[in-house]
Amino acid sequence: MPARHRLSNWLLRHEIVYSDGQAWAGAHDAWVRRQRFGLPLVQATFDEGYDSVVTIAAMDADSPWTGTVHRPGCLRGISTLTGFALAVEIGGWSRFTGNSIGAIRETPMGSHHDRRRLVPLA
């Protein structure tokens, strides 16, 4: 998930490294939540990054788009955040059929943003 990656890199830039197990497992999440910084601006930046991770995870667990978000997740490289972006851009997958996709496979139709998200997976 890009939000986790950004937060991990932000912590690394502040020379805060977790080395007691797998990242983003239960113990790591508790360790991240315990981080405190002396400067209010630095703490606010950290809190915003962590809140992004928590918000995306909460939306993934219980939202009207949960099914739509998880369907493309069966493809390698589709994360929760990418799934949400595709769900918002595309809406429902039911309007696509094998025949309709096959008929336009050689034309660059569709959203530029969606193609940018999906091309690395091809």
Give me the secondary-structure topology.
Blueprint: H1 2-13, H2 26-33, H3 40-61, H4 66-70, H5 80-90, H6 98-103, H7 112-118
How does this structure look, described?
The structure is a single chain. This protein has 122 residues and is mainly α. It folds into 2 domains: 2-61; 66-121, no CATH class. The protein is built from 7 helices and no strands. The radius of gyration is 18 Å and the shape is elongated. The mean pLDDT is 76.
Q: Bin the strand percentage.
A: under 5%
- Through-space gap between termini: 19 Å
This entry's quaternary arrangement is single chain
- Report mean pLDDT, rounded to a whole number: 76
Notable characteristics:
122 residues, mainly alpha, 2 domains, 7 helices, 0% strand, elongated
Quick description:
The chain has 122 residues and is mainly alpha-helical.
